[in-house]
Amino acid sequence: MSKTFKEFAEACWDSHKQVGTKMKGGKRVPNCVPKNEDNLEEKKVRITKNGKELLVWDAELRTYQQMGWTLVEGEINELGPAAMKRLARKRAYAAKTMAKYGQAAKMGIPASKVNQRKNTPTRTK
Fold it and tell me: Which of 5, 72, 85, 113 could form a cystine bridge with 46, CB 3.0-4.6 A?
């Protein structure tokens, strides 16, 4: 028996299994994860809204926050590896930017005149 297009589009690869769904491009699609992952709970976070609690994947957290859900306190350290890498990159970028503006202030360059396209503090024209 042949599969319909909808069944084919919703199927995961042979090496993956479906664990719930996620939002992608404004549409809800299956969340396919590798079968060999042992501890899937480490990638989930607890959220709450109007007294209800849900356990969702950290990749879906931003979507739920836009719908009014809030992260339960104490759960931020239980983010998965991908979320932790994004957070580390964001913190590194912020530290680099703050250092650049700090150096510019020591040089006497006002913040409005710092060239944002360079990593070193240079004055814009």
Answer: 72
**Phi and psi torsions of 71, nearest 5°:** -75, 135
Strands (E), 2-113: 16-24, 27-34, 44-49, 52-57, 70-71
- Nearest Cα to Cα of residue 70 among 46, 43, 88, 94: 46
Q: What is the DSSP letter of 58?
A: G
* Global confidence as pTM: 0.37
Give the β-pairing of 27-34 and 16-24.
antiparallel
The continuous run of DSSP H or E covering 3 comes out as none
Task: Give the 3-state secondary structure of residue 114.
Answer: strand
pLDDT (tens digit, 9 = 90+) per residue, 1-26? Answer: 566 656 655 678 777 888 878 888 88
What is the spatial distance between Cα 39 and Cα 102, in angstroms, rounded to a whole number? 43
Cβ-based neighbour number of residue 125 at 10 Å: 5
CA atoms 81, 83, 86, 92: torsion sign: negative
